[in-house]
Write a structure and sequence with these properties.
- This protein is α+β, with helices and mostly antiparallel strands and about 650 residues long.
- The protein has four domains: about 10-60 and about 320-360, no CATH class; about 80-205, PAS domain (Beta-Lactamase, 2-Layer Sandwich), CATH 3.30.450; about 220-315, PAS domain (Beta-Lactamase, 2-Layer Sandwich), CATH 3.30.450.20; about 425-650, PPM-type phosphatase domain (Phosphatase 2c, domain 1, 4-Layer Sandwich).
- The protein contains 16 helices and 22 strands.
- The protein has helices at about 5-10, 10-75, 90-100, 150, 155-160, 205-215, 245-255, 255-265, 315, 320-365, 380-425, 475-495, 500-515, 590-595, 605-615, 620-635; strands at about 105-110, 125-130, 135-140, 165, 170, 180-190, 195-205, 220-225, 230-235, 270-275, 295-300, 305-310, 440-445, 455-460, 465-475, 520-530, 535-540, 545-550, 555, 575-580, 585-590, 645-650.
- The strands form four sheets. Strands 1, 2, 3, 4, 5, 6 and 7 form a seven-stranded antiparallel β-sheet that branches.
- It is rod-shaped.
């Protein structure tokens, strides 16, 4: 069953559905906004945490590096007291390395041949054992130690050239423990201002990893440190440290967003980037790889490193996503609960309406005294019940009146049928082929628009002559029928002793006009046909002209314009006469024929009368039957608007 059919069968279901749709929409919008707000808040918090951790890590690195610089620079300040003496040089180194635990080794590199008895290279050093912390003295300069620093060591080259403190690039100590190291060097000057040696402090980079790992904002975030030569100073995989060139690696993998990120880091910029993969930075040993990472990066300016934290966006948004999933489940549970509760509540509230509908159905089936349900509330349903009760009372009273009216109407209809029978009995009885005289044949019919009507026709034979008339009383119904009865009776009475048609109409007019307070009138055509001579004498009182139908065609009988009977007493009507040829049919009719209307209010008219007459054989009964059928076909479903009367007389 389709949803619209289900909804149309129950107000409770339809209301529940509509409310549920609105609640669903509200919850969906609220849930979406809440999820967006939560994701935005969590993202902002991640940014804050990462920035705070970044600043803390950089500050810690800078502090410890700064302490090394301070210790070395301090030692360089009093080095002229000790460093120019070969025996006292170790004392200088001893004091320096003892003053800072981050220093793994200290070395004095003298210029070529500074101590002639030591040859070209002389580099006394003191190193700290990474395990026990014990200090060991040594001398490492010269080819025998593979350390020709005057030609190959960057500390000597750049420090003497820059003539200031210098942090070298990170490197792997190849002479002792193979540890990642970085060296800070300062030049030592003699009385002439010339550099006679450089003082170097080697710093083990193991503490850098510890600092950044303890500073990262989240446990699942990763941290990396790049030096200015694109080498990893710190990496989650220790095998990458000082062995992989980051820029070469990302360009080989051709990852545009990682390349851009690496270039920004090597330009010592600070920022946040979103990248879609960290495969180039991650080691093959990484346990998890995510689709999107948020990378925070900033420079450690003192040593020209770049520090970055990478945070998987999926992990950052894990809580909002979980919250969103739980919220969706909660919304579904709430919607189901609300649906059941709404359906129950609405059905309970509509029970009185259902009972009222049952009572209404009984009333509709005719039980006007059906008991209506009691409703204790004062709401709209109570108002509807009261209104229905008033309607029930009104309907009961109406039905009582209707029964009385129907009985009265039935009585009137019965009386009208009796009146119709009486009226029809007043008309002359006409068999199928009536021949009032040997030389004439006649047929007529009258179809009232209501039970009784105001049309009339009559004929009789006296002294071998055919007396006939046809008339139409103004109005319809009972008043017209009464005037019709009077008119027909007067015609019979007057024509019984009068042979002139104009005198018959004149006397009839005077009688009808006397005391005519209702102003009703009759259009009347009276004719006297003498078959022996074939002469028709006639007088017309405002009636339609008869139609003459001969073998040669059709034509309307010429009639004078006279007033209808009953309008003006004393009116002098005129007589006319016409010779009727043998085989001629005279068709008389009322305006119910010419003015018969169809549903478009078009009238039958004289042209159609002529056309139908020309199609007939001019015999009275077939002519009238054909004309009647033509009128019915023309009118169609339109209601008959006037009495229809026709009388046809054929002269043999």
């Amino acid at each position: 069953m389709k949803l619209p059919k289900i909804l149309n069968k129950s107000v409770a279901v339809r209301t529940t559905f509509l409310v549920l749709c609105i609640v669903t929409l509200i919850m969906f919008v609220a849930g979406t906004l809440q999820t967006r707000y939560t994701r935005s808040a969590v993202g902002a918090e991640a940014h804050r945490q990462a920035s705070h951790a970044m600043d803390g890590a950089i500050k810690m690195i800078d502090t410890r590096v700064s302490k090394v610089e301070t210790a070395v620079n301090t030692a360089a300040g009093y080095a002229y007291l000790l460093a120019q003496d070969k025996k006292k040089a170790y004392t200088l180194l001893q004091r320096l390395i003892a003053a800072n635990d981050d220093i793994a080794a200290v070395t004095l590199m003298y210029r070529a041949g500074y101590f002639p008895d030591e040859g070209r290279y002389y580099a006394p050093t003191i190193s700290r054992d990474p395990v026990s912390g014990a200090l060991e003295e040594d001398e490492i300069g010269g080819p025998e130690y593979d350390f020709c620093y005057l030609e190959t060591d960057s500390n000597w080259v750049y420090t003497t050239k820059l003539d200031t403190g210098y942090w070298c690039l990170p490197y792997v100590d190849s002479m002792s423990t193979k540890r990642a190291m970085v060296t800070y060097s300062v030049p030592l000057h003699d009385e002439r201002g010339e550099t006679y040696a450089i003082l170097c402090a080697d710093v083990d980079l193991q503490w850098v990893r510890h600092v950044v790992e303890t500073s990262k904002p989240y446990e699942y975030s990763t941290v990396m440190v790049l030096s200015r030569d694109s080498q990893y100073v710190c990496h989650p995989d220790s095998q990458y440290v000082l062995s992989i060139n980051a820029i070469t690696q990302v360009k080989h993998d051709n990852e545009t967003d990682i390349i851009r990120l690496t270039e920004n880091m090597l330009r010592w910029k600070r920022g946040v980037d979103t990248v879609h993969s960290m495969v180039s930075f991650d080691s093959p040993k990484a346990k998890e790889h995510y689709d999107t990472y948020i990378v925070f990066y900033a420079p450690v300016e003192r040593v020209q490193w770049s520090l970055c934290f990478s945070i998987p966006q999926e992990k950052v948004m894990e809580l909002p996503n979980r919250l969103g999933a739980h919220m969706r489940i909660l919304i579904i549970v709430l919607l189901v609960t609300i649906a059941f509760m709404l359906r129950y509540i609405i059905r309970h509230q509509l029970l009185p309406l259902k009972d009222l509908a049952t009572s209404a159905s009984k009333v509709a089936q005719g039980d006007f005294h059906a008991t209506l349900p009691e409703i204790r509330t004062e709401d709209e349903i109570r108002n509807l019940r009261d209104s229905f009760e008033n309607m029930q009372l009104s309907l009961t009273e109406y039905m009582d009146r209707l029964q009385k009216t129907t009985a009265s109407k039935a009585m009137i209809e019965s009386e009208l049928q009796v009146a119709k029978g009486i009226q029809m009995s007043m008309l002359p009885r006409i068999p199928d082929a009536q021949s009032p005289t040997p030389d004439t044949q006649l047929y007529g019919c009258l179809t009232p628009a209501k039970a009784v009507g105001g049309d009339l026709f009559d004929f009789f034979v006296r002294d071998g002559k055919l007396f006939f008339c046809i008339g139409d009383v103004s109005g319809k119904g009972v008043p017209a029928a009464l005037v019709m009865a009077v008119t027909q009776a007067q015609f019979r009475t007057i024509s019984a002793h009068e042979d002139a048609p104009e005198r018959i109409i004149t006397e009839l007019n005077d009688r009808l006009a006397a005391d005519n307070t209702t102003n009703m009138f009759v259009t009347l055509f009276v004719g006297i046909f003498d078959p022996a001579e074939g002469v028709l004498r006639y007088s017309n009182a405002g009636h339609d002209s008869p139609l003459l139908i001969t073998s040669g065609g059709t034509d309307f009988l010429s009639c004078d314009s006279n007033l209808p009977c009953g309008v003006m007493p004393g009116w002098q009507f005129t007589q006319q006469q016409a010779v009727i040829a043998s085989g001629t049919t005279v068709l008389l009719y009322t305006d119910g024929l010419t003015e018969a209307e169809n549903i478009d209010h078009a009238q039958f008219g004289e042209d159609r009368i002529v056309a139908v007459a020309q199609q007939s054989d001019a015999l009275p009964r077939p002519l009238i039957d054909l004309m009647t059928a033509a009128v019915h076909d023309f009118v169609g479903e339109a209601e008959q608007s006037d009495d229809l009367t026709m009388l046809a007389i054929r002269y043999k």
